[in-house]
Amino acid sequence: MKIAELTKTFGKITAVDTVSFSIDQPQMVGVIGPSGAGKSTMLRMINRLTDATRGSIRINDREILQLAGREKRRWQRDCAMIFQQFNLVPRLNVVTNVLMGRLNGHSTIKSLFCVFGRHMVDEALAALDRLGIADQALQRAETLSGGQQQRVAIARALMQQPKMVLADEPIASLDPLSAEKVMTALREIRDRDHLTVICNLHTLDTARTYCDRVIGMLQGRIVFDDEPSRLTPSVVRDIYGANEELNESMTSTSIPGPVYPPEPVRIRKPALA
Amino acid sequence: MASSTLVIQPPAPVTGSLTVFSRIRRNSLLVMAGTGLTVLYLLYTFLSFDVWGLISRSRPQRAVLLATDAVAHKVHVTKTIRGADSLSIAVEGERTATYETPPGWVTVSDDLTRVDLAEGFQVDITGTHVIFQIPDLGPIHVRITDAGIETTLPEGVDPPDWLRATPAKFDARPTIGRRVQVSRARIEVHRYFMGWENFFFPFRSKLAVYSPGELFSLAFSDQRLDPAMPNWRLMATTFWNNPGWQHKQVFIALLETFLMAVLGTLTAALVGLPLAVLAAANFTPSQALRFAVRRLFDFLRGIDMLIWSLIFIRAFGLGPLTGALAIAFTDTGSLGKLFSEALEGVNRKQMEGVHATGANRLQFYRFGVIPQIIPVFVSQTLYYLESNIRSATIIGALGAGGIGLMLVEAMNTQRHWENVFYLILLTISLVMVMDTVSAKLRSRLIHGRSGI
């Protein structure tokens, strides 16, 4: 995959600014950067949830940004997306949510009536089993914990039989234990299925532990693109744009809450108009 | 342990406490003013609608009479004076329900007919002379003469208020369940009995004479009352074709009303949903289209169902389909508005999740949108269905048919209040059944294990 000069502007704001990089072999890429750096917008442009303003994304000499209609939808199935808020349909049961990964390619009439063949259901169950939640197959998605829901979302992604997996802050709303399970599952997609996984993260330690390559973004631009071992404190400081000394724990999920001294009660008298 | 007294020191006022206090004071003044205005308004309406006059003019006795008629039936003992001198005893005075032999409480001898009205009340008829025995009052003599009707009360008794005696007519009703009327043409005695007469089988039917126990054993007996069919079938057909209570017609009418409501509501829901998509801001970018659809909803809803049905009765004539159309028109407006509001409140995240899998437009609606509005769709549609059963009764009364029309006809005859009461009971039970069924359906669909 080769991304060149990818740009997205919202009015006067440039969210993603002439981003270029390429991925030659299956690898796990972590994208880090402060919020507002354009990480999500970039992933959404790759999946075509958001249209790019300029630039190109080419895979095997096929221009992804030019795809439309049926071909665009087929591409969306090929690059499965995982979201921070899981984006499952909460009222539907888990297995139906997973089966939705195969909507593209399934007959419209059949899907309107929720008709799925035996082999498809078996496949969905196998995907759930791989993530260790086959027991919950018939529960409504909304009854599951956050970590379980994210694993359902990964099962849905697997059901898409994707060529690539995009994950937009997949562990940002999870507790550390669930986060580890989800990251392990994503890493397994890279190791077992040999697929590229691009994963937006906001914790440096996670990027270090799971990724083969880290891309650092700041204000829409790529400011770092190398192995995680090259992430030195000075590089991190550049990425997060911090002037004073930046402690690694600041970007970790386990920040101890600061203690503020209690302030005296003051009620401000509203100003008379 | 030494005991000590707790002294609460008023705290030093916090800066700005006066502002907080005045806010709270203003709130309490607002509440008091609101309550005061409501009371004033009620007082004004009480005076301007002349509620005192209404109460003083009300006639609770008529209500008691109607209530009695609804749960009791009367047997007429009628003696015709002119022409052939004849005596007939009939339920509700109907020719089809005339006793062949007098019941036990009427004794007929050569020239005396004695009607026992129980508890000491008794009427003796000899020719044109009637003696009405009333306990604690004594006998009232009534004679039909050429000069008119001549009434003689026992000596020293003032005419009671339940008695109307003029030379043209004598009418006495000492209690709710006893009445004697005498005119120059006939003498009529009414005795009331609790219960609905001949509810199951018509008066003339062979089955009318049996008790429930006998009927039960007869139903499975091999000895056929009618050689053409087994007894249980005879019972069923006799009941079904009962001419007084018209069970068959009532059932058909009830079904008609129910179908009118179902057809109307279902049409409204199925037409309202796609229109609601056009009226929802997050699905239809065109403001002009949205405006047009919303005004259409307002128009449909703004004209009341009754007005629509009057219009459609003019246009398409009487019939249940007309009623269904009126319901469909009004409720397309109401349900469309409700659905479009529900659609505007949908969660984008799950829609995006479906979109990102490469689903096409219809699949996107099916899995991204429909599951989210199913709860509103189901519960509102069921609620409207329930409420439309009541509306269909009223529309039916206008001429669209069904139980409403039957009810109005029964009310118009003025005589069969028990029929009116029966039809009202049936309508209420239909609404109650619908309520139970829809509650079950709703919870099954909304809270059930797997959604749609």
**Which word captures the global form of chain A?**
globular
The largest sheet of chain B is: 6 strands, antiparallel
Task: Please tell me the overall pLDDT of chain A.
Answer: 85
Q: Strand order of the main beta sheet of chain A, please?
A: 6-7-8-3-9-10
The CATH homology group name of chain A: P-loop containing nucleotide triphosphate hydrolases
CATH superfamily of the largest domain in chain B: MetI-like
Strand content of chain B: 15-25%
- Pairing-aware structural class of the strands and helices of chain A? alpha/beta
**How many domains make up the 3D coordinates of chain B?**
3
State the CATH architecture of the largest domain in chain B.
Orthogonal Bundle
**Order of SSEs of chain B, N→C?**
HHHEEEEEEEEEEEEHHHHHHHHHH
Question: What share of the residues of chain B lie within helices?
Answer: 40-55%
Question: What does the average pLDDT of chain B come to?
Answer: 86
The CATH class designation of the largest domain in chain B is Mainly Alpha
| Total count of helical runs of at least 4 residues of chain B | 13
Largest sheet strand order of chain B: 2-1-12-11-10-9
Describe this structure in words.
The complex is a heterodimer of chains A (273) and B (452). Chain A is an alpha/beta fold and 273 residues long. Chain A has one domain (2-245): Rossmann fold. Helix content of chain A is 33%, strand content 21%. Chain A contains nine helices and ten strands. Chain A has helices spanning 39-47, 69-78, 94-99, 108-112, 118-130, 146-159, 176-192, 204-210, 233-240; strands spanning 2-10, 13-22, 28-32, 54-59, 62-63, 79-82, 164-168, 196-200, 213-218, 221-226. In chain A, a hairpin with a 2-residue loop joins strand 1 (2-10) and strand 2. Chain A is globular, with a radius of gyration of 21 Å. Chain B is of the alpha+beta class. Chain B has three domains: 73-194, no CATH class; 206-240, no CATH class; 247-447, MetI-like (MetI-like fold). Chain B is 54% helix and 15% strand. Chain B is built from 13 helices and twelve strands. In chain B, the strands form two sheets. In chain B, strands 2-1-12-11-10-9 form a six-stranded antiparallel β-sheet. In chain B, a hairpin with a 4-residue loop joins strand 9 (163-165) and strand 10 (170-175). Classes of the chains: A alpha/beta (273), B alpha+beta (452). The interface between A and B is large, with 44 and 30 residues.
